[in-house]
Design goal:
With 367 residues, the protein is an alpha+beta fold. It is 36% helix and 16% strand. The strands form 3 sheets. Strands 2-3-4-11-5-6-7 form a 7-stranded mixed β-sheet. A 3-stranded antiparallel β-sheet has the order 9-8-10, with no helix packed on it. It has a two-stranded antiparallel sheet with strand order 1-12. The protein starts with a helix and ends with a helix.
C-alpha cells in the first residue's frame, strides 16, 4: 500500500492503475467486516464511477460510507432477502446493507424474472446509497436486456415553489444494448446538479453556476458550500421558464417508485448520506429505497432485428450536423464510455486531495 501512496506529489492529480486501486478498496471493505464477495461487488460498482469519469461517486464517497458503517447504519453482514414476489416482481429487504451490493442483488433478481416473464421489477427498502445508477443497469446489456434503476436519496432538493428540501437528487439510469456500438446509457440526477458536483467545486475552490442552488433565504447562490449553510439544490430545469416542473415531477416519481412501493423512507424522512444532515426523529419506513428492473428485448422483438435498428438509430444520430464543427454529436453515455476505455488502459487520474483522504482512511481502518 505504501508504494502507491508514496506517489503523492504537489501535482493536482495522481494516476493509479485500476487493478491497484481495486485491490486497495476490496481490502478496505474487508477490514470493515464485509465478506470478500460483497467487498468485490461493492468495489466494482464503486470504481465504475471513477472509470467512467464520475469522480464524485467513486472513492471520494468512501468517507461517507464509512461514517454510516461506524454509526451502525450500514450492516456489513447484511443478507438481502425477498419478502414478497410474483412471477415478474419482487420486494427486497436490503437488511440495512451497502446499497452498492443490495442494488446488485436486485438487478440479478430482475434479470432472472425478465428471462421468464419478459420483464422483472424489484422494489427495495432498508438499503443505503447505491452509487451511480449505471452500476445497476449496465449488467443487463450482455443479457440482451434493457435495464432501469432509480433510487431516492436524502433531502437536498426543493420541490417547485418551495425553498425547503423534500426530495433527494433521485437519479434515474437506463442502459440499452447498442449492437456493435457502445450501449446507450442514461444516468442522470433529477436535480439541476448532483451534490457531488458541489463537492468537487468546493475541493477546487470554485463557484457553482447560477441555477444549481438557492441559499437559505431563497436567493440564487454560486457558493459550493451552500447546502452546509442551509441552502437547497434546485430540480432539473431550475426555473419556470426552463421547465423546473419537469425536474420536480421526475424527482417525485422516483421517490414514489423507490419508497412507496417498497416500504423505504421517503421525502424529507430519507436518512442522510451527508454527515452534516441529522436523522429525523420519527421515520415512516426503513432505510433508502430503490426501484430496479429489466426488459428482455426478445419478449418484444427478435434481438437481431432490434440490433439492426439500434445500430441504424445510432448511426443516424452520429451523422447529424454538429453545432460546433470541431465537436461530434454524442450518444448518451458515449463520453463516459470513452473515459472508461481510456482509464482501464492508462489508469485513473485522482485529485490528490481525494487520494490523500483515501490514504488516511486506509491507515485509520487498518490500525
Amino acid at each position: 500500500m505504501v508504494s502507491f501512496f508514496n506517489q503523492m506529489t504537489e501535482h493536482k492529480a495522481i494516476n493509479i492503475k485500476y487493478q491497484q486501486v481495486y485491490r486497495l478498496v476490496v481490502d478496505l471493505w474487508q477490514s470493515l467486516g464485509f465478506p470478500v464477495d460483497v467487498a468485490e461487488i461493492a468495489t466494482t460498482n464503486l470504481l465504475l464511477a471513477d472509470l467512467r469519469g464520475i469522480s464524485s461517486h467513486g472513492i471520494a464517497r468512501l468517507p461517507g460510507y464509512i461514517k454510516l458503517i461506524k454509526a451502525n447504519r450500514i450492516n456489513p453482514a447484511a443478507k438481502p432477502k425477498i419478502v414478497h414476489e410474483t412471477m415478474g416482481t419482487a420486494r427486497l429487504d436490503g437488511d440495512a446493507g451497502l446499497g452498492l451490493y443490495v442494488g446488485h442483488i436486485a438487478q440479478e433478481i430482475a434479470r432472472a424474472k425478465a428471462s421468464i416473464a419478459g420483464s422483472g421489477w424489484v422494489s427495495v427498502y432498508n438499503s443505503s446509497h447505491f452509487g451511480i445508477g449505471a452500476a445497476h443497469t449496465l449488467p443487463g446489456v450482455p443479457h440482451k436486456m434493457i435495464s432501469l434503476s432509480m433510487t431516492n436519496a436524502s433531502p437536498l432538493v426543493a420541490p417547485i415553489g418551495s425553498i425547503e428540501a423534500y426530495f433527494g437528487t433521485n437519479p434515474i439510469s437506463v442502459a440499452i444494448p447498442g449492437g456493435k456500438y457502445p450501449p446507450f446509457i442514461l444516468d442522470m440526477a433529477t436535480s439541476a446538479a448532483a451534490n457531488g458536483k458541489l463537492e468537487i467545486a468546493a475541493r477546487e475552490g470554485k463557484n457553482i453556476p447560477k441555477g444549481w442552488a438557492l441559499d437559505s433565504q431563497g436567493n440564487d447562490s454560486n457558493q459550493a458550500d451552500v447546502l452546509k449553510n442551509g441552502g437547497v439544490l434546485l430540480p432539473l430545469g431550475s426555473t419556470d421558464d426552463l421547465g423546473i416542473q419537469k425536474g420536480s415531477g421526475l424527482a417525485g416519481w422516483v421517490d414514489i417508485m423507490s419508497a412507496l412501493l417498497s416500504g423505504a423512507n421517503y421525502g424529507k424522512w430519507v436518512p442522510p448520506f451527508v454527515a452534516f444532515k441529522p436523522i429525523a426523529d420519527s421515520l415512516p419506513g426503513l432505510g433508502i429505497g430503490h426501484f430496479i428492473g429489466s426488459w428482455l428485448i426478445e419478449a418484444f422483438i427478435p434481438y437481431s432485428e432490434f440490433e439492426l435498428n439500434i445500430e441504424k438509430w445510432i448511426e443516424g444520430l452520429k451523422s447529424l450536423k454538429p453545432k460546433d464543427n470541431d465537436k461530434e454529436v454524442l450518444v448518451p453515455g458515449e463520453p463516459e464510455h470513452k473515459a472508461m476505455m481510456n482509464n482501464v488502459i492508462h489508469g485513473i487520474d485522482y485529485d490528490t486531495n481525494v487520494w490523500d483522504d483515501f490514504e488516511q482512511l486506509c491507515k485509520l481502518v487498518h490500525k
